[in-house]
Amino acid sequence: MHSIVKKLRGLGLWPAAKEEIVWNQSISAKMTAQFISLTVMSGRGMMMADPESEAMVLSSDVEDRALGEALLTGLSRSRPVPSEIFHDWYRSSSSRYEAWVASMLARFKYKSRRAMFKTMKCCSITLKPAGFELSPQKHEKLEGWGRTVGDGIEDVHLPRDATPAELGSALRLAFDRCR
Q1: I want to staple 158 with a disulfide (CB 3.0 to 4.6 A). Which of 72, 88, 110, 162 is the partner?
Q2: What does the alpha-carbon distance between residue 68 and residue 109 come to, in Å, rounded to a whole number?
Q3: CA–CA separation, 138 vs 51, rounded Å?
Q4: Cα angle vertex 23, ends 55, 53, to 5°?
Q5: Longest Cα–Cα distance in the chain
Q6: What does pTM read for this prediction?
Q7: By C-alpha distance, which of 132, 118, 139, 126 is closest to 161?
Q8: CA-to-CA distance for 176 and 28, rounded, in angstroms?
Q9: How many folded domains does the chain comprise?
């Protein structure tokens, strides 16, 4: 393994040190007619819901400024995580997801998973060196969203100095672009 990394470094395809690995703060946002749920994503390269940061749940009619402030709070909690910890998180991710689903079903009195997920929209929000990137997702199956190259879905971009109100408004625009 060490020799492969050394070869990749020589070709400029692997960072010289761990500190050089680019890491972007990220949130997964889901929206229904009743709520917007913001889940802090952490990791390094691959991202996963951070078990140490509870999902923030807001009313779907929350003001843009408050939505943007919640996004900024969540992004500030996103963090790089060593692979050993990430693997532990992965083993418990299914039970944590099921707990989130159960809490949303009960809190918003949905009669079934299908009723909640049928029209749910999903976006990822990433803070990169150049600014915010909000990526609307395509609803591919009841509890699954994704993107493919050339899918025609346009991301929303904002500069790093965007106001909370602009960020909240941009998330609503991104949700409108979901398919």
Answers
A1: 162
A2: 26
A3: 25
A4: 15
A5: 57
A6: 0.85
A7: 132
A8: 16
A9: 1
Alpha-carbon radius of gyration of the chain: 18
pLDDT at 1 over 50: no
Q: Residue 97's domain spans which residues? A: 22-177
Quote the tokens at residue 76: 């500030």
- 5: in domain: no
Q: Could you tell me the CATH number of the domain that includes residue 74?
A: 3.40.1590.10
Q: In the chain, helix, strand, coil percent, each to 5?
A: 40, 25, 35
Mean pLDDT value across residues 18-33: 81
Average pLDDT over residues 15-22: 52
Q: Residue 56: how many CB atoms within 10 A of its CB?
A: 18
**DSSP H or E run through 91:** helix 83-107
Q: Is residue 17 part of a domain?
A: no
Residue 3 lies in a domain: no
pLDDT of residue 30: 98
Tens-place pLDDT, residues 105-129: 999 999 999 999 999 999 999 999 9
Distance from C-alpha of 69 to C-alpha of 144, rounded to nearest angstrom: 27
- Contact call for residues 36 and 104 (beta carbons, < 8 A): no
pLDDT in tens, 79-90: 998 888 888 888
